[in-house]
Amino acid sequence: MHKKTIDTILSILMGISALIMVISAACRILHYTDAIIYFHSGVALYIFLSAIESIRLHKEIKSLKKIIENTDNEKLD
């Protein structure tokens, strides 16, 4: 997949997990049953997606750092 497509999918899924948390928090205030389960599910999904995003960004930073180092070495020569 393309980087832009993955970014779009991850942002949509993170938005959905945030929406789940907000709706379940409102349901928890209204004392609906099982609202806490939905809240924890939204939090778990958000943490999972954040971990994936962190790993992707770490790889991106590494590749950009290599490019910068190569460019600096070429300028020195």
Describe the protein in words.
By secondary structure, the protein is mostly helical. The chain has one domain. Helices cover 90% and strands 0% of the residues. The protein is built from two helices and no strands. Helix 1 runs antiparallel to helix 2. It starts with a helix and ends with a helix. The mean pLDDT is 90.
- Bin the strand percentage: under 5%
Helix count, DSSP H or I runs of 4 or more residues: 2
**Helix-and-strand structural type:** mainly alpha
| Through-space gap between termini | 37 Å
Shape by Cα distribution:
rod-shaped
* Beta strand count: 0
- Average pLDDT number: 90
Helix-strand sequence: HH
- From the alpha carbons, calculate the radius of gyration and give it in angstroms: 20 Å
Estimate nothing, just give the exact number of structural domains.
Answer: 1
Q: Helicity level, as a percent range?
A: over 70%
Give the gist of this structure.
With 77 residues, the protein is mostly helical. It contains 2 helices and no strands.
Helix and strand arrangement:
Blueprint: H1 3-29, H2 35-76
